[in-house]
Design goal:
about 350 residues, alpha/beta, about 25% helix, binds NADP nicotinamide-adenine-dinucleotide phosphate, binds zinc ion
């Protein structure tokens, strides 16, 4: 067993503090990763504050992990010492259900093992990436292309794949009008990826404060949702809406922006229910859907796509001691556009 430095939450209300976590011995199919950077996802905040349910405190969160392989088990074939690698939101799944067999481990019918706050095969609670090292089964470790800087690679492991997967599934591309609601960590990646796929992208943000950024990320249009005329101007416009907002929104207003057969996909995960008025669906045979991260093969596809299309998250690198302040800024929508912890500051 390896004891490593980390940051942990000890309750829903206390600030995160420096701590240690135990990592299992490297098994035959495991990879030991020396973590370099860990992104801060809004899901980390929902989790540690107990907004999604009971939390096994003390808990180290973080599921946007990049680093270098420093040891591999005897049967490891996919990764070697020195490789640049990443780990996202899952570290295992049953591998036998039809979804796992189809490469959709995020929808494992037995439940995948989350990178943190999940019960692992050995009965221990998984601990996430705000730490110096992690041991992960080789099948859940991704290759990070050389073209992507380490710190910029981290947010791709959750924000990148969570937006790439629905954009790919609902065929964002040339001739498709895509709207992105909320331009934070996930939202800014949705804009960049949808634009790289060739779609016509519109940002729907609370204000026009980030308009120049949105246009620079590849959006053609940018509207403030605080302005009610936006919903009149854009009614029946979009083929696809990706909702990344971490709080409930007025579904009737947003569904009205879909054209015939359009789909609104929520990846935002507010703790409260999101009531869907069915009459807003009837109008133009609209659909409402949800989407969870992406499978391992699709995550690799996304990393390779981002390398090829020069798509990278905008990151603000912070020291480990600045995490609590970063959480407060995320909650105020004051993030440009993903905080990433320099894990060297934990060594
Ligand atoms: P984030 O960086 O905080 O971005 C959320 C954005 O939503 C904000 O930047 C803001 O954008 C907008 N927003 C926030 N509060 C709002 C409100 N009350 N009304 C309207 N708009 C508001 O968070 P994130 O890391 O991108 O995560 C977003 C959500 O996705 C979270 O709920 C997270 O848990 C969830 N998530 C889900 C998955 C999945 O697999 N489905 C994966 C990762 C994350 P503007 O300033 O532009 O308005
Ligand atoms: Zn996440
Ligand atoms: Zn499964």
């Amino acid at each position: 067993m390896l004891t490593v430095n980390a940051i942990a939450a000890t309750s829903a209300t206390d600030p995160l503090v420096r701590a240690t976590v135990e990592r299992r011995d490297v098994g035959p199919r495991d990879v030991l990763i020396e973590i370099r950077y860990a992104g801060i996802c809004h899901s980390d905040i929902h989790t540690v504050r107990g907004e999604w349910g009971k939390v096994p405190y003390p808990l180290t969160v973080g599921h946007e992990i990049v680093g270098v392989v420093t040891e591999v088990g005897a049967e490891v074939t996919r990764h070697a010492v020195g490789d640049r690698v990443g780990v996202g939101c899952m570290v295992n799944s049953c591998r036998e259900c039809e979804n796992c067999k189809a490469g959709l481990e995020q929808y494992c019918t037995g439940g995948n093992v989350g990178t943190y706050a999940s019960v692992d095969r050995d009965g221990t609670v998984t601990q996430g990436g705000y730490s110096t090292h992690v041991v992960v089964d080789q099948d859940f470790v991704l290759r990070v292309p050389e073209a992507i800087r380490y710190e910029a690679a981290a947010p791709l492991l959750c924000a990148g794949i969570t937006t790439y997967s629905p954009l790919a599934h609902w065929n964002a591309g040339p001739g498709k009008k895509v709207a992105v609601v909320g331009m934070g960590g996930l939202g800014h990646m949705a804009v960049k990826i949808a634009a790289a796929m060739g779609a016509e992208v519109t940002v729907l943000s609370q204000t026009l404060g980030k308009k120049d950024d949105g246009l620079a990320f590849g959006a053609q249009h940018y509207y403030a949702t605080s302005d009610e005329s936006t919903f009149e101007t854009l009614k029946n416009s979009f083929d696809l809406i990706i909702n990344t907002v971490s709080a409930p929104i007025d579904m009737r207003a947003y569904l009205g922006l879909l054209r015939l057969d359009g789909t609104m996909v929520s990846v935002g995960a507010p703790p409260e229910p999101l009531p869907v008025p069915v009459f807003a669906l009837f109008g133009q045979r609209r659909s409402f859907a949800g989407s969870s991260i992406g499978g391992i093969a699709e995550t690799q596809e996304m990393l390779d796509f981002c390398a090829e299309h020069n798509v990278a998250p905008e990151v603000e690198v912070i020291s480990a001691d600045a995490v609590n302040e970063a959480y407060e800024r995320v909650l105020k929508s004051d993030v440009r556009y993903r905080f990433v912890i320099d894990v060297d500051t934990l060594r």
